[in-house]
Design a protein that fits this description.
The protein is of the alpha+beta class and 186 residues long. The chain has 7 helices and 7 strands, in the order βαβαββαααααβββ. Strand 1, helix 1 and strand 2 form a beta-alpha-beta unit.
């Protein structure tokens, strides 16, 4: 099983854990602030350096140190823990970040409220637009983003303190991993 060594206060740890949950990959989280054994193992994997998160892939001593979401996904694909198509499909289940979801729900609700006050003939088109915006915000999945192959997850529209890039949306991708073998530094 994959073990993630990290701390509750670390935004990179929270991001990596969220990414593993989105991929539906079984993992164990070990808070190195609470576990001396966990801290010792984490330091062993990083040549005595204390950094978080460290993802122990439990496959020949390979570990990822502070991996990006793409790097983590790429390592899982390389180690055949899931296929590239599975990763792509699982990440496509949600393609709208948290802040954008809140904005979409708010805007959709405002449009629906405005549509209710309009004459019947012009109410329906506006109500459908409001329903679309509210539904995509509620579910976190946008069919337009899916068709275009883009996502706002991992950007400033997801969780600004954990963002991996400055652009609001980007292409969904799975890149090659950067693996570290126990006792060596990359």
């Amino acid at each position: 099983m994959i073990k993630v060594f990290g701390t509750d206060w670390c935004s990179d740890t929270r991001r990596s854990l969220r990414h593993l949950r989105r991929l539906h990959v079984p993992h164990q989280y070990i808070n190195i602030d609470d576990s001396l054994d966990g801290l010792a193992r984490a330091k062993q994997l990083t040549d005595a350096t204390r950094c978080t998160p460290i993802v122990d892939l439990a496959m020949g001593g390979q570990a990822l140190v502070e991996p990006s979401n793409d790097t983590l996904t790429g390592a899982l694909v390389e180690l055949a823990m899931l296929t590239q198509d599975e990763a792509y499909d699982r990440l496509a289940v949600q393609n709208v970040g948290d802040i954008e979801r809140a904005v979409r729900m708010s805007v959709g609700g405002a449009i629906l409220a405005t549509a209710a006050a309009l004459p019947r003939a012009s109410r329906w088109p506006l109500a459908l637009l409001g329903l679309f915006a509210a539904t995509t915000g509620l579910t976190g999945w946008c069919p337009a983003y899916h068709r275009a192959g883009v996502t706002s997850l991992g950007g400033p529209g997801d969780r600004p303190s954990e963002s991996e890039r400055a652009a609001w949306v980007s292409r969904r991708s799975v890149s090659a991993p950067h693996l570290v073998t126990a006792g060596t530094e990359a």
